[in-house]
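Structure first, sequence second, as always.
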């Protein structure tokens, strides 16, 4: 029995129940089971399902203890058909995200996550996004531009209040195209999301569009991260998809989430070259400072998104000093602290390999993750339930209580 599965005896022990009760759970659909290859009549139980069921039992018995644990890298608290993280790999609706990044367009992956059918991309992205009638202030980052522009555009998009799944998917296409144009500085109208960004950030270099699209796909969704959970909470209130995205942007911008990419950019600037990478890392460790861009709790053997983006950077600009620096930092992670590069490191490495403007890594993260926020919103609208957890009060009690 491998680590992904438990025997019937192990599953029953984890749940604190008898074998007869375990079989009853399986027959009622509360727990999945499957035949053990090569063994007659024996069945095995996915470890993840058993632990999820145990967590639910604990939640019912002692919600004040189980809920905080679940909210901090604990067992799943919501069901979703969008993203699976298993055995060090990332899947969108059962399809390997790294393979999708190399073989699909942004629009196809958006359609896959929103409708389950990548073939819907052409229909969804056939309409024009709304326009805002005045220029945005200068000196803003791409994310700040989007944070200002998205609510303005959303106020004009009355069709966005149709919260049925096909309508939300169509609204999502308008939002994504609008945000790409805003982040890129309104370049000439282009045929795809990736090309819009390429024309704004790397004019005259059409070969850059493909890698930009791959980065957006790898950033598209990642289960219930803080911005996706925020998006689901906002959607559960029946706010519009534009409002869902506004909330997601606010959460993503924080330094413990997508804003972490700016710390990685600072590390690259500090290192300057491959020769300086190990020294900078060692200096930070001596000063007791955190090392950004490495180590992910869900990928103990390395973030596949970070690895894929690093590889793409090497393919695009194999002789680039920026790429040499990126790989030297990755080697230093592994040598000095035994960690691996994350998606944040990969986004910075790719952006520098493509010679994109500063702050582009966070923009790539946000534009890609917008796809996931909208996918989560579609699921949450379908639930028709308000997400409203209770708080465990630990303050001063009223007199006489």
């Amino acid at each position: 029995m491998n680590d992904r599965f438990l025997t019937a005896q192990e599953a029953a022990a984890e749940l604190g129940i008898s074998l007869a009760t375990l079989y009853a759970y399986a027959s009622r659909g509360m727990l999945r089971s499957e035949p053990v290859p090569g063994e007659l009549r024996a069945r095995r139980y996915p470890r993840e399902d058993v632990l999820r069921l145990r967590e639910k039992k604990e939640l019912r018995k002692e919600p004040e203890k189980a809920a905080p644990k679940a909210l901090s890298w604990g067992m799943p608290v919501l069901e979703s058909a969008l993203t699976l993280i298993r055995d060090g790999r990332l899947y969108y609706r059962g399809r390997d995200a790294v393979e999708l990044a190399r073989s699909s367009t942004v629009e196809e992956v958006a359609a896959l996550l929103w409708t389950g059918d990548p073939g819907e991309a052409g229909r969804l992205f056939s309409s024009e996004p709304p326009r805002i009638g005045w220029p945005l202030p200068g000196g803003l980052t791409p994310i700040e531009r989007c944070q200002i522009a998205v609510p303005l555009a959303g106020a004009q998009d009355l069709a966005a209040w149709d919260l049925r799944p096909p309508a939300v998917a169509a609204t999502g296409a308008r939002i994504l195209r609008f945000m790409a144009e805003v982040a890129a500085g309104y370049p000439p109208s282009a045929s795809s999301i990736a090309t819009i960004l390429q024309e704004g950030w790397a004019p005259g270099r059409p070969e850059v569009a493909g890698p930009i699209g791959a980065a957006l796909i790898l950033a598209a969704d990642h289960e219930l991260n803080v911005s996706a959970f925020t998006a689901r909470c906002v959607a559960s209130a029946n706010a519009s998809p534009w409002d869902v995205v506004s909330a997601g942007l606010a959460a993503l911008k924080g330094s413990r989430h997508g804003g972490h990419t700016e710390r990685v950019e600072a590390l690259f600037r500090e290192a300057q070259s491959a020769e300086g990478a190990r020294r900078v890392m060692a200096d930070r460790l001596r000063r007791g400072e955190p090392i950004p861009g490495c180590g992910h709790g869900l990928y103990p053997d390395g973030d596949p998104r970070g690895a894929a983006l690093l590889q793409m950077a090497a393919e695009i600009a194999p002789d680039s000093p920026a790429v040499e620096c990126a790989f030297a930092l990755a080697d230093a992670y592994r040598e000095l602290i035994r960690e691996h590069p994350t998606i944040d490191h990969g986004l910075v490495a790719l952006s520098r390999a493509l010679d994109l403007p500063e702050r582009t890594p966070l923009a790539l993260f946000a534009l890609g993750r917008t796809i996931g926020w909208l996918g989560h919103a579609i699921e949450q609208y379908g639930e028709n339930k308000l997400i409203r957890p209770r708080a465990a009060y630990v303050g001063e009690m009223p007199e006489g209580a």
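Margin note: The chain has a mean pLDDT of 91.
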